[in-house]
Prior knowledge:
This protein is α/β, with parallel strands linked by helices. The protein is about 30% helix and about 15% strand. Strand 15, helix 10 and strand 16 form a beta-alpha-beta unit.
Amino acid sequence: MKFLKLSLSVAAVLWALCMSAQQKPFSFVQISDPQLGFYDDNKSISRDSLQLEEAVRHINRIRPAFVVVTGDMVNSSKSMRQINAYKGIISKVDRSIPVYHIPGNHDVGKCSKESLDFYRQNYGDDRFSFRYGDCAFIGINSSVIKDGFEPEMNTQYRWLEKELKKAGECTRKFVFTHCSVFLSDFDEKENYSNFSVLDRQLYWELFKKYNVSAVIAGHLHNSSRGSRDGIEMVTAGPVGRPLGKGVSGIALWNVDGDDYSCSYIPLGSFPVYGSLNGLVMAGYQGWFNAEGDGAGLGWKHYKKDDAFCPGSCTIDLWPDVSEYEDTYETAFVHKDGKPARVFSSHDASTVDLHFRWMKEYGIDGAFMQRFVTSIRSEKGKDNYNDILMNAASAAEKYDRAFCVMYDLSGITSSEVDILMDDWKELSGKYRIALRENNHYLYHNGKPLVAVWGVGFDDRRKYDYDDIARIVDFLRSEGCSILLGVPAHWRTLAMDAMADPRLHDLIRKADVVHPWFVGRFNNDSYPSFSRLVEEDIKWCEEYGLDYIPVLFPGFSWYNLKGGVAAPLNQIPRLGGAFFWQQVYRSVSYGAKSLYLAMFDEIDEGTAFFKCTDDVPAGESPFLTYEGCEPDRYLWLAGEARKVLSGASPLSQEKPVRK
C-alpha cells in the first residue's frame, strides 16, 4: 500500500531520489476523481473500478517517477466497500512508483474533526510535500478551504507558506488541490468548482510570492486551463465518470530542466508501450515496392540501373513468400523453372504479416524508417504514409510497439524543415502518437522520435546546427528523442566526426543508438564489444538510455555490383554470430536491443523469413545456410526471453527443440 504519510525518513529517501534524478528529464502522472460508485449512484462500483484498473495498467507501463491522486477516490465518504475497493486497485501500482493522495469533497464529506480523522485513518495525511529532482511538489486539502473549516484552514495555510518558503531554491514548484482555484478566468464568478473570490486572491498572492509554476486540480470531471501572473491553473478530467464534454483519462506531466508540459490523455489513447527499456525492437525499412502494387514507384529497392532482372538487382537475400497474401511475379526463375515472386511493403497485407510474425516470435515492435529524401516528393510521402498507417493498425492488432525513425541520409541543410513539417502533420492530422488503442512507443513519458544520421564522418550536407534545430523542435513538440550516431560516437574517432559538439547534442537526447552494422565479424566482435560496455557506462553517467544494434550477418554484393563487396561478406554462421552479440550486450547491461533489420534484404541483414530456394541465373543470392526460414525470428524471440530474464543468459546459442 502506498498511502504515504510524510516523515523524516520518507523525506530523506525522497531527497536521495531527487539528487539522483537531477540530470534526467522525468514524468509524473496525475489522476483525479476515480470516484468509485458515481456511475451507478452507489449501487455498483463495477464500471468505475474497471476504469481505475485501466489507469493503473497504464501507469505501470509508462513507469512515471510518481503518481498524484487529486481526490474523490470514492463517491460516498463513509462507504468502506468503496474505500477498500479503491485501496485494493491503487495498491496494484508498481511498488517502485510512489503514490500521493489529497482528499476531494466526496472523500471527507462536510469538513469536521471527525470526517478528517476518518479520512486520515483510511488514506493517510491530507496534505504532502516532497522534492523530486530540483522540483517541489505540494498537495493541500481544498475541502477545508471550500468549507471554511477553522482552525484547520489556518493551520494548513501556515504549513503551505512554510513549505513554499522551504522550496525557495527549487527550479519548479507545483501545488496540487482537488478543487480548482479558478477554471479559466481568474475573475470568473464563484461556483461549485472553484475557490471563493477572497480565497482565490489570498492563495494566488501566496503562489505568486513564492514563484509557483502550476496549480494542478481535478473535481470538475472535465478539463480546463487558465493562467495568471505567469502561473498556470490546470484542471484535469476524471479517471472515472466524466461530465459535460469531458472524457475519462490521465494527465501525463513531463519535466525537463526549466521546461514542463502536460498532456491529458483519454484512457483509450494512453500508450500501451511506455518505455523503450526492456524491449527488443526491429528496424523496419518498409521500402520495397513492386510493379503493380498501386504506389507507382516500380521495383523500388529491388531494381538496379532501372531494371529488376537477372544480372541487375540490389538484393542479396530472397524472401520466403509462401505466407504472403499478395506477391508479384519477377523476371527471375527458380531452379525448377517456376517464376520467382516477391512482396511489396506498400501492401497492407504485407505489413500485417510482418507484425504477426513479430508477435508470434516475441519481437516487441518496429522502428519505422522514414527517409527524409523519400518524403520530399508527394508520391514518396504518400507511399511512406500508407506503410506507416498500415504499421500503426497492425501494431494495434497484434499488440506490438511502433515508432517513427527519421533517416537524414542524403539531405541538405535546406531540407531540415521537411522533417519538422512532417512530424507536425503526423502528430496533428494523423495523431500518430495519440491514437485510440495507442501502440506508439513512448519513453520518459513522451512519444519517442528517432533521428538517425548524427555525427557521421562521411561528408554529409547538414551540420550540427541543423541537428540542434531538429532536437529543439522535437523537444518543443513534447517528444523524447533517440539519436542514431556512429559506432565511435563516444571517442569521436573513425566513423565519427572529431567534434565535441556531438556530445552536447547527445546530452540533449534521451536515447543513444550507435550504428554497428558492418563494423565487425564473428572473430573481431569480442574486442569491438568493449565499446558497448564503455558506452553504457558513459550513458549511465549522463542519465541517458542506450540501445545497441545487433545484426545477423551482412552482404551487399548485388547492391554494390560486386565491387569490393564479396557475397556473404559477414557470415551468419547459423545464428552463432548474432547470439554472440546478444550474450555480450546483455552481459554489459543493455536494457533494450535493436535488431538491424527486420526486412533488409539489400544488405543481407534481414531477420524475417528468407528462402534457400533462391533464383538461378546471373545474379548470385545468399541462402540461409540450410537453416529453416524462421531461424532468425526464433533467435530474436530467444533474445527477448534472455533480456526479460525469462531465460538464463548463456554464451551458447540456444538449441531449438
